[in-house]
Structures are given as structure tokens and as C-alpha cells.
Amino acid sequence: xxxPRHGIDRGKLRQMTELAGLVARRLCHDFAGPIGAISxxxxxxxxxxxxxxxxxxxxxxxxxxxxxxxYRVILSPSEAPLANHEARALLADWVxxxxxxxxxxxxxxxxxxxxxxxxxxxxxxxxxxxxxxxGKLTVGDDFVEADGPNLRLDRDVHDAIGGxxxxxxxxxxxxxxxxxxxxxxxxxxxxTAVPQTLRLRVHNxxxxxx
Length: 210
Fold this sequence. Notes:
By secondary structure, the protein is α+β, with helices and mostly antiparallel strands. The chain has a single domain, classed as 2-Layer Sandwich (Heat Shock Protein 90), CATH 3.30.565. 54% of the residues lie in helices and 17% in strands. It has a five-stranded mixed β-sheet, covered by helices on one side. A two-stranded antiparallel sheet has the order 1-3. It starts with 9 loop residues before the first helix and ends in a 6-residue tail after the last strand. It comes from Glacieibacterium arshaanense. This is Histidine phosphotransferase ChpT C-terminal domain-containing protein. Pfam families: HPTransfase.
């Protein structure tokens, strides 16, 4: 029996196609909320020129724009490094749409290599979503940490970060992509989860520390 033509592994290709579909579903889910809020607010604005409604439209539009910019860096990073202040601003805009979450940006240097920026920002999104009741999101040179009450990491996301085999769900698709891309760049992600704290640390493949 002949192997895959042109070096294409059909099994891998199928997995990549399925993962791309899950990521698309995840994006549609994340964008549906802000778009729906804008649509509803515009309908209300026709009858009542309320400053609060205008604020809702503005905040929803900003949140949607921030998500688009952030996902572009995470899912399709350029070869050029990302300015430190730009990476921070991208994440800060996204975090600002999450109530009661504060950002502590500790990344040093003027620039961040594109793959490293994609990994850190992707892990930051994953960690931030575990802060179901707000808290603090800290991002350093090689780690992301979420601290907050009632911190809850979805089981599918936990398994994706830990490298467990099994079907990937839309909720875990982003984590799966971030972990896979980090592996391609010779990195691995170690996870430590205790009550109220989730820590994700990025190691080079040669590191043995956990």
C-alpha cells in the first residue's frame, strides 16, 4: 500500500481541517455577543437617544475590534517582532471588556518575537477566561498567571493544555492551537492549577524544569 501522495498525511490533514472549523466556531461565538449588543443598542437608539446606549455601542465596538486585532496576532503572527507596548495595548483593550479583571503586564524589553508574542497573548486569553468572577491577570516574559475567586478552567481546555488525547471542542480550540504552535517553535507549556490560581509557563524544549 502506497503512502500519502506529496507527503500529505490524510489523518493529520483531517485533524487540521477539523481544528480550523472549531476555531471558526469559537470566533463566531466570541464575536456574536458584541455584534448582538451593537445591533440591540442601535434599535433602542432609534427611540431613545440615551447616553448609556451610546456607551454600550461604543464599548461593544471597541471590544469587537480588540478581539479581532488580538486573534490576528495569535492565529496568524507576522515574521516581524511585536513592540512590547503594542502587545500590552492589544491585551489591555481585550481585558478592559471583561468586568473586574485587571492586567499586570511584566514583559521586559522593547520588542517581543512574533512566535513568543502569539504564545503569550494566546495563553493570556485562555487564562483570563478562567476568571469567571474577575481577578488579576499577570503576563511575564515566559509565563501567564490568573488569580481570582471561583477560578474555573474548563475541563476540555485543561486537557488541551496538558496534551491529553481526545476530541477537541470549540471551547478548547484556541488552547489547542496555541499549544500546537508553541510546539512548532520548540516550546512547551507547563500548567500549575491550585484553588484561585492558574499559572501557565512557557519552556524551551531543552528545559527540564517543570
